[in-house]
Amino acid sequence: MYGYAGAILRVDLTTGSVKTESLQEGFAGLYLGGTGFGLKMLMDNQKPGIDPFDPENPLIFAVGPLAGTMAPAAGSKHGVFAKSPESNLLGESYSQGFWGAELRRAGYDILLIRGRSEAPVYLWIDDESVELRSAARIWGKTNWETEDAIREELGDAFVRVASIGQGGENLARIAGIINDRYRAAGRTGLGAVMGSKRLKAVAVRGTHDVQIAEPEKFREFCKVLYERAKGPATSKYRTLGTPENVLVLNKLAALPTRNWQSATFEGAERISGEYLNERFVAKIEACSGCPMRCEHVALVPEGSYRGVSCRVEYQPTYAFGSCCGVDRLDAIVKSIEQCDLYGVDAISTGVTIAFGMECFERGVLSKRETDGLELRFGNAEAMVEMIGRIATRRGVGDVLADGVKRASERIGKGSEKFAMHIKGVEMTGYDIRGLKT
Q1: Which pick of 29, 78, 184, 279 has the fewest CB atoms within 10 Å?
Q2: DSSP letter string over 132-147?
Q3: How many other C-beta atoms are found inside a 10 Å radius of the C-beta of residue 303?
């Protein structure tokens, strides 16, 4: 089959067994690629009513037929699937970068992981060679430390790593899976599923070619897509990036502010894409095979967070900016970096902290319960501090680590009225009261 590696890799962490099976042409034809593969494998391999932290809840990584090719955008994408610890429903999340392309080049379309290891491990996929290695020395490390340590151990600086930080290890239900340093399969708590399996990381090196049925025609078609990807329709992504949304949505009265109490933010100019690019963006990068270069990497030039760096997108900017009432981009950059390091979803973490801020301001949470932290809207330092407390489940962070729905159930006192979620998953940055959609 052209466009597919033609293999499914199954790993059982309980027994340590590794099995490869063929991807059937009929299956590929019916379900096509990453999303279809992930959902179908989840339905076929998951018991009804299973707990998300049950060892038999499968964790599935899947890529589509364009993965590892020169096709822009689609060539670098992968999906992750499991039962969600947040919603108890379907959990799916998507990431880009280089990890998905590497999995395809290693020879796999689907990676299905089940079971639970007795001790922390990481999975090392080197083409046909697949093994579980001890993660004892990297358990408790941040995602960036984990990536560096695995590359050093394997002696290859170009190995691609998808890993969890302390958030996933501590089963924070808002934990995500970080790959390629700045990229995240962040939503629906799949990092906690990975942590429940005591799987610290999946490292991949692939050396196989991706077979194309008609290479010349494919190349010509990709040239057309490349030119379109560099045209006016994508200028937003190439120039200001998705943070351009800040001022657009603020003008539409659709920028969620102070835990969705209002839809416009007086500090929008100071957290806008324009302000970010003028003062903070150090470089703009692209994922594998993509000509758009939309990854805006920011570097804090001065102040208490000087030297902090991360990839900045609109959603985390809203979550740590307007939603928390914070108009300091240096603190927003620091917060996103902390989420990358600890391995918690930046959107859910920002919204959860905003919920905590409203609880504090309404007297639902006391200063004693926050261990002396003035968890008020606009308090940038408190916001940054809370991320580590959530990931490590310290103090009130233990309550907030499970997301706003469960936190409101534990806190009570009417706090469920301002817990902003949909079926347990924190809301994204569009106030639909201002959008006619």
Answers
A1: 29
A2: EEE-TTTTT--HHHHH
A3: 12
